[in-house]
Amino acid sequence: MTTLDSGVRRRTSDTRPVITDLIDEATIESIAQEAWISLVGEDEVLVPLPGGPVADPVSSWVDVVGPWTGSVVLTTGRRTAEELTRALLQEHSPEVLEDEDVADAFGEIANVVGGNVKAALPGSSGLSLPDVGEAPALRNPDDLCRIELQWRGEPLSISVQGALPPLPAVP
Amino acid sequence: MRALVIDDSRAMRRIVSGILEGLGYETLQAGHGREGLDVLEGLAADPLPDLVCVDWNMPVMDGLQFVSAVRSNPGWRSMTIMMVTSESEHTQIVRALAAGAHEYVIKPFTADAIRGKLALLGLLPQEAML
């Protein structure tokens, strides 16, 4: 008798890597520190300490699609994102920042951090253009590597989070 | 010397242009590959840029498509193309060089890294060498 596999039931051999199998917090922090020094300023450091709750949060992120699929999400307060934009633009910063300026600069930081996270993952992956707004929902709490930092005393987090829900449990 | 900086991020265009201008370049800017081709086509009798710094991931036309388009035009072969991008996978670097880019700078970079690449390419303006 032939048994057809509908593909619905998960086999014990089915696995999908979660991000903590592929990258660790120290690597993400090192990528972020390098990006900060290059983009924000040579004297700018990220302090690896939780900065408490974020007021008026805004996120920027890029999606990674490949053997592991998910997003690299930076989250901070809107005022901190504006400060980051001014630091990036330096003397080119307009007196009054438009939302577009903040989206552009904060998105570019996500692009640089995300591109280097992607390069640290095994295999070849694609990278989306950056997006800015409300962070993508966390689909699988086990597929998350998150670091909490402070920049100029303000909280900033970087989450590398999977886009897929958890696989059903094997009976 | 003249450079064309192509990046969809205005912040990044300003950073790269600022570094090049500090070295003595006159810069032109474009927000994606298609706009970069428009700038080149619009130069008419003006001299072509000596250097093009181009990002990879951009809307409308990405950096790789831009490099291929430039390399398919015999009149544009004199320009040196440097990819400046967060695409740092080895396979991507090989693809860019195979398409016709001369150099590859990975974001994040420092001003010294750009200067070093230009020195290797023989594209450091005289005033930057003093």
Please describe what this structure looks like.
The complex is a heterodimer of chains A (171) and B (130). Chain A has helices spanning 19-22, 25-40, 78-89, 99-120, and strands at residues 46-47, 57-65, 70-77, 126-127, 131-133, 144-151, 154-162. By secondary structure, chain A is an alpha+beta fold. In chain A, a hairpin with a 4-residue loop joins strand 2 and strand 3 (70-77). Chain B is built from five helices and five strands; from the N terminus they run βαβαβαβαβα. In chain B, strand 4, helix 4 and strand 5 (103-106) form a beta-alpha-beta unit. In chain B, helix 2 (33-42) packs parallel to helix 3. The longest helix of chain B has 13 residues, at 10-22. At the A-B interface, helix 2, helix 3 and helix 4 of A face helix 1 of B.
How would you summarize the topology of this molecule?
The complex is a heterodimer of chains A (171) and B (130).
Chain A: H1 19-22, H2 25-40, E1 46-47, E2 57-65, E3 70-77, H3 78-89, H4 99-120, E4 126-127, E5 131-133, E6 144-151, E7 154-162
Antiparallel strand pairs in A: 1-6, 2-3, 2-4, 2-5, 3-7, 6-7
Helix pairs in contact in A: 2-4, 3-4
Chain B: E1 2-6, H1 10-22, E2 26-30, H2 33-42, E3 51-54, H3 63-71, E4 80-85, H4 90-99, E5 103-106, H5 111-121
Parallel strand pairs in B: 1-2, 1-3, 3-4, 4-5
Helix pairs in contact in B: 2-3
Please give a handful of descriptors for the protein shown.
heterodimer, A: alpha+beta, 7-stranded antiparallel β-sheet, 4 helices, 7 strands, B: 5-stranded parallel β-sheet, 5 strands, globular
